[in-house]
C-alpha cells in the first residue's frame, strides 16, 4: 500500500492511466495495479503494457468506478461518464466477443470481422416481443422494438444505421430484414422476394475497398410495408448516388463491382464463349487496382446466389442474358486501345481495331465503325447546323468511360426498378385501412481517402444530413420539448453541424449551388469553380481554401473531421450527361434492352438534355425527400463502429474508435439519455394505457382532471421520489420507468384476464354440470330399461335352448335309427354293385387274356412254323448236299461234311433269329423314347428362328458372302442334286399337266411381262443388288419405299446380299433419314386399316363365311406364327385378327444383322399381306426363283 497519491492504491485495484501525450484522440487507458512497493506503483494497462508510476507522476492515475471494471450493457449506467469510460466499456465487451452495447435505446455495434453464433433461429425466438433491457443488447432487440412499436402506437418506424465505411452497416441491415421476415410469421413469397433483393443489390452496388471487403457504393432506403396483422405485404427500395466512376477506375488494392468477378467465375463456359469472356486478369477495368481476388468471398457461389435471387424476383431468362451482354460489353470496351493522331493541326485519335471492338459492338448490336466514330469525334449542333470535330486521345478515353458509366448507371437503376416492380404492392384505393411501414436506411458511411472527388463530397454531405437529423432528434427537439413543457432540466451542450450543412447546401451561394451554376456555363471549368468557392467561402471557418493559386484542392470541416477534395473532374461528374453521338449510337442499336434503359435519354431532345438537372441537384432533392420521410417516423438509431483499419478480428484501435465516438456525439448522447426522458405520453394516452394499474379509474374521455389521475398512478406505482416529471401536457419517464410500468400493466392485464377466464370457465363448468346431470338421468333410465330387457332376453334364450336340447335329443335318436337302416341298405347295394362290376371286369380281363394268349400263341406258332420250315429247308438242303457229295467222296465223309454245313446253317439261322429279336426290341425302345420325347416337347414353345433355319438352311447362312448354299433341311435330303445335274436341269419347269388340260402359255412369258410393266431399265433377269426404284409403279411414296425394302429383305433372305457388320449412326440431314422412317412418316395406320376393311368387304362378298378361315392371310399367319411362339402376343394378335398393316420390323433397312425369322415376318407382313405390294413381291420371288 502507498499513500503518496491523492488516493490509496492496493494490488489488484483498477485505475485510469493518463499518458498525457497531448494527441487529439488520446484518452486515459484502464489499468490494474500489479505492485505497490517503496513509493512506486507498477500497473498493467488494457493493451498489455507495463508502466511504473513514480511519486512525481502521481497525478497520472485516477481511481476507476466499479461499473467500468467489468463493463455494463447500457452505457447510461457508467459511473465514469467520459470518453475513456465509454471506450473501455466497448473494449471489454469486444474482447469477450460481445459486440452490442446500449446507450439508452441507441445501439452501438462494433464490427467483429468474423461470424459469431448469435444470429440463429433460437436467438430470434429469444428476442421476439421483448423490451429493450430485458435481454442483452442485440440488433434483434432493436428490430423487435421497432416492429412492436409500429403495431402498438400505429405509427411508422425507421431504423437509421450509420457509421464509417466498413463498420458493418450492410450486414446490420440484412440481419434486421432477416428478423422481420421471421417474426412476421407468414413465410410468404413476398418475404422471400424482399430477402432475395439484397444479394442482387450487393452484387451490382458493392465492391471491395481498402476499408471494407463489401463496401456499399450506393445508398438505399428500404421501406417495408406491413398489413393490419403485422405481416409483410410489400417493400420499396430507393437508391442514392451509385459510384459509377468505380466501373472505369479503382484505387490500389480495390476491386470493381462484385458482379463482374462473379460472372467471370460462375458463368458456364459455353455462355462465356458466346460473350467472348475470359479471366478477370484479361480486362483493364478489373485490374486497375491490382486486385482480382477478395478473401472471404466465393465469387463462384455468389454467382449462383445472384441467379437464384433474380429468378425469385421474376427476372426472365432473356433479361438475365441481356444484362450479361451489357456487362460483357463494358469489359470489352475497357480493353479498347486508342492511338493519337494529328489531322489539320488538330489533335485526334483512332481506335485500334481489335476483337474487343468487334465483340463489344456485336453485344450492343451496333456497327463497329459507328462505335469508332462515336468514340473519336464529337458532333456539335449550332443554329441548326452540325459540326464534327475530332477528339484527342484523352478526350476519347473520357468519352468511352462516360459511355460505360452511363450504361452501368442506367442498368443499375433499371435493376432497382425491376426489383420494386416485383416486391412493391401499391395501396388499394378502395381499402380504407392505412398500412404501416418500417424504413431501413443503409447509406454510405463517412469517407476520407487520399484523393477525394465529387462522389466523396456527396457521400459526406449525406452523412452531414444524417448527423443533423440525429442531433436534431436527440438533442434539439428533446431539449426544446423539455423547455415547452416547463420541466426541471439542465441544458446539455452538444456539437452542432448545422453551420457546415448550411455552407454546403442550405444558405444562398452554398457550395452545391455554386458547383451547379458553374456546371451550366458552357465555358465553366474546374478552376473557375474553385475560384468562386474560394471567393465566396474563404472566411467561413468550416471552409479550408487552397494554400496557393496552383493547388486544386479545397477542404471542408465536417463533423467527422477535415476532408480535402480534389476539384479536378467536379464539373464533368456533376453534369452527368452523355453527348449526342452516344445517344445516336444507342438509338441506332438493334438491341431493345439497351434502348429500354436509355429510353429517357433517347426521348429527350438535345436542348432538353442541356437543361437536364445536374447530379448534385438530383442528389440534394433525393436527400430532402429522405429527410422528410424520416421526420414523420419514430426513429431508432444503430451506431456502427469500425474497430480497426486492417479488417482483422479481435484488434481494437483505440484512437480510431475514440474518433468515431467523438464525431458521432456519443458522449453527449449518453449525457442527454441519462438526464433526459426518452419516454413521454400525453395525459390521455397515459390514462388509457395504464388505468388498469389503479382500480376504479375511468377512461380518459370521462376524466376531468387527467393530470391528477396521471400523478396518482405514477405515485402509486413508481413512488414520489423517482425521477419522473409531469409537464403541461405530457408525462416524462425514464426507460426503466416505462419498462416497469409495462411489466406491471402486463401483470394487471394478465390478472384481469385470469379473472375473466375463471368466471367464464365457472359458467361453462356449471352449464356442463347441468347438462351432464340431465344426460346422466336419461342414461340411468335407459340403462335400467336396457338391463331389464337384457335379463328377459337371457331368460327367453334359456327356455328356447332347453326346448331345443329336448327336441334335438328326440330327433337325434330318430336320426340314428334311420341312419343305421340306410347304412345297411347302402352296404347291401354297394356290395351288389361291386360284385357285378367285378364280374364284368373279370369277364373282360379273361377275354383280353384269351385274345392276347391267342395272339401270342399264333405269333409263336407262326414263328415255330417258320423255324420249322427253315429247319426242314435246311434238312432238305443237307440231304441234297449229302446226295451231291456222295458222288465226290465216300458216303461217310459226305454225310459228315453235309452235317457240318447243316450245323453251320443252323447256327446262322439262330443268329439271324436273335438279330431279329434285338431289332424288334430296339424298335420298341425307340418308339417308347420318341413317345416320351413328344410328351415332353408337347408343352414347350416353338422356336421359330430354329424352325426357319432348319427349313431354309439350304439357302445358306446369313454371312457376308452371297451364294453360299447350305445343306437341305431334314426330310428334304433327297432333293439335293449334284452341281452338274443342276446345270442340266431346266429351271422353272413345273409338273406336266394332263394332255387334255394343256394350253398355250407362250403369251404369258415373264420376260414379256417385265418388258411391259417394269420401270426404268429393269429387265426380267435376276440381279444381286439393291434397286434404285421399284420394279412396278406405285402412286404412294410409302408403297415405293416398302417395295424397295421387300426387295432388299428377299436378297438378304436368299443370301445374295451380305448382312451389315455393325450399326451405323446417322447424323442429321433429311437425305440420311432411314427408309423405314420415311415409310412410317408417309404411311399412316388409318390408310392400311381402310384398305384392310375394303379387302375384308370384298372377301365377304366373294366367299361365304365358312371359307373365311381358309383365306390366304389366315394360312400364312398360321404357317408363320404358332400359339407358343416367342413373338409378342401383340404382334400375333394384330396379324391374326387383321389389325394394323403398318410396316413391321424396320430393322430390315437399318444397318444391323437380322435373323431369318425377322426377314420372313417382314416379307409376309409387308409384301404379301399388303394388297398393293403383292405383285411386286411375286415378281421379286419370280426373278429370284428363275436363277
TrEMBL record:
Matching PROSITE patterns: IQ (PS50096), MYOSIN_MOTOR (PS51456), MYTH4 (PS51016)
SMART domains listed in its UniProt record: IQ, MYSc, MyTH4
UniProt signal peptide: none
Principal location listed in the UniProt entry: cytoplasm
GO BP terms: actin filament organization; actin filament-based movement; endocytosis; sensory organ development; sensory perception of sound
Residues covered by region (Actin-binding): 623-645
Gene Ontology CC, one term: actin cytoskeleton
Record-stated family: Belongs to the TRAFAC class myosin-kinesin ATPase superfamily. Myosin family.
Domain called MyTH4: residue spans: 1022-1187
Cellular localization per UniProt: Cytoplasm
Protein name: Myosin VIIAb
Domain of life of the organism encoding this protein: Eukaryota
Swiss-Prot/TrEMBL keywords: Actin-binding, ATP-binding, Coiled coil, Cytoplasm, Motor protein, Myosin, Nucleotide-binding
Native source species: Oryzias latipes
UniProt cross-references to Gene3D superfamilies, sorted A to Z: 1.10.10.820, 1.20.5.190, 1.20.58.530, 6.20.240.20, Kinesin motor domain, Myosin VI head, motor domain, U50 subdomain, MyTH4 domain
GO molecular function, one term: microfilament motor activity
Residue stretches making up the Myosin motor domain: 70-746
InterPro entries, alphabetized: Actin_motor_Myosin, IQ_motif_EF-hand-BS, Kinesin_motor_dom_sf, Myosin_head_motor_dom-like, Myosin_VII_N, MYSc_Myo7, MyTH4_dom, MyTH4_dom_sf
Positions with a binding annotation for ATP: 163-170
Coiled coil (UniProt feature): 858-940
